[in-house]
Each structure stands twice: as C-alpha cells, then as structure tokens.
C-alpha cells in the first residue's frame, strides 16, 4: 500500500486479490480533547470454513480487541468499538421507555448485540443469529460509516449501493435544504 496524501490521516490505495481497488481514509477527528477514528472505505472479504471473517486491517486499530456487533438497519450488522458502543447505549438509555417505538428499537438493537473478540489474526466469529439476520453467505462487505462499521452480504450491498447511487443527487439536495450539507 502507499499513501496518496495526508488529511489529518492518510489516504491509502490498495489492490485486493480480485483486482478491486479500494481507497481508504484513516481519518482521526478531534472531538473535545480526544481524537477519534472515523471509519470509511469499503472492503470485500469471504467467510472461511469455520465461518470467521477477517476485519479489514485499517479498521482493526480503531475497533480494538473486542467489538460489539448488533443488528443494524437495512438488514446489515453494525460493528462498534467498545467506546463507541457505550455512547450508543447511553443515548438509547436516555430515551423514554413509556413509548412503544422506543421500547421496540431498544429491544431490536440491544437484544441483538454481542461482544465479539478479535483473534490474533484479526478475525471475528459472527454469531449465528446475526448471520441469519443479515443474510450473510460467503462474500461479505465491510463498509466504514463514520463511528461504526457495517457488515453486509455482498449481493445485498451491491443492490443497496446501486439504488442509493441513483438517488445520491436527490438525497444531497434534500440534505442541503435542511442545512445538513
């Protein structure tokens, strides 16, 4: 791998064995007195015969030796570092349990969560209930999404990505109207 330029982190270009070129930004963002890692980039990996999968090397440092995985939205899995998971859990605890929607969302996220250890080779074993939820088969995509990593079945990811790419201009316009961009 080689660095292309530095933006408070480094942009890397790497070639995977299938000839796919992936650009990754290892961006560290300053929040208060701390610097936190922002996960971005897209990687395709395969489940091995023991149903383990290797975390992309560029995500391992920011995620740590233990990660928290849970059911995510759009039928993917969310993977958080322990520190980021604690922030998510704290926000969920602040919500009123008197509302049915809040209780349902808390149950969806929290009951689906599992702490998963990263082995010495950077692999994780995805719990069976999470594999079933996300429909993970052989090929899996890791997508860096700011404070978390998403895990997708490759076929589902490609379908989702194609749909979102067609809507990108309209989405950007809507976000611009509300001042988010």
CA radius of gyration is 17 Å
Indicate the structural class: alpha+beta
Q: How much strand content do the residues show?
A: 35-45%
Q: In whole angstroms, how far apart are the ends?
A: 32 Å
Total of DSSP H or I helical runs spanning 4+ residues: 5
Task: Based on Cα principal axes, name the global outline.
Answer: globular
Number of domains: 1
Helix and strand run: EEEEEHEEHHEEHEEH
In brief:
This protein is an alpha+beta fold and 181 residues long. It is 35% helix and 38% strand.
List keywords for this structure.
single chain; 181 residues; alpha+beta; Chemotaxis protein chec; 9-stranded antiparallel sheet; two-stranded antiparallel ribbon; 5 helices; 38% strand; disordered N terminus
Write structural notes for this entry.
The chain is an alpha+beta fold. It has one domain: Chemotaxis protein chec, CATH 3.40.1550.20. 35% of the residues lie in helices and 38% in strands. Strands 1-2-3-4-10-11-7-6-8 form a nine-stranded antiparallel beta sheet, sandwiched between helices. A two-stranded antiparallel sheet has the order 5-9. The longest helix has 24 residues, at 154-177. The model is unreliable at 1-31 (pLDDT under 50).
């Amino acid at each position: 791998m080689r660095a292309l330029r530095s933006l408070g982190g480094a942009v890397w270009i790497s070639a995977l064995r299938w000839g796919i070129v992936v650009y990754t930004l290892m961006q560290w963002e300053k929040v208060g007195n701390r610097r936190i890692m922002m996960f971005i980039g897209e990687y395709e990996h395969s489940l091995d015969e023991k149903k383990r999968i290797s975390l992309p090397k560029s995500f391992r440092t920011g995620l740590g030796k233990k990660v928290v995985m849970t059911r995510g939205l759009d039928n993917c899995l969310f993977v958080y570092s322990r520190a980021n998971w604690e922030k998510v859990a704290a926000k969920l605890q602040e919500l009123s349990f008197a509302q049915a929607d809040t209780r349902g969302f808390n149950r969806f996220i929290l009951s689906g969560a599992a702490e998963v250890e990263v082995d010495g080779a950077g692999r994780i074993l995805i719990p069976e209930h999470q594999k079933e939820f996300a429909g993970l088969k052989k090929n899996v995509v890791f997508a860096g999404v700011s404070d978390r990593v998403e895990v997708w079945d490759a076929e589902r990811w490609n379908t989702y990505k194609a749909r979102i790419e067609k809507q990108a201009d309209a989405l950007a316009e809507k976000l611009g109207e509300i001042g988010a961009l």
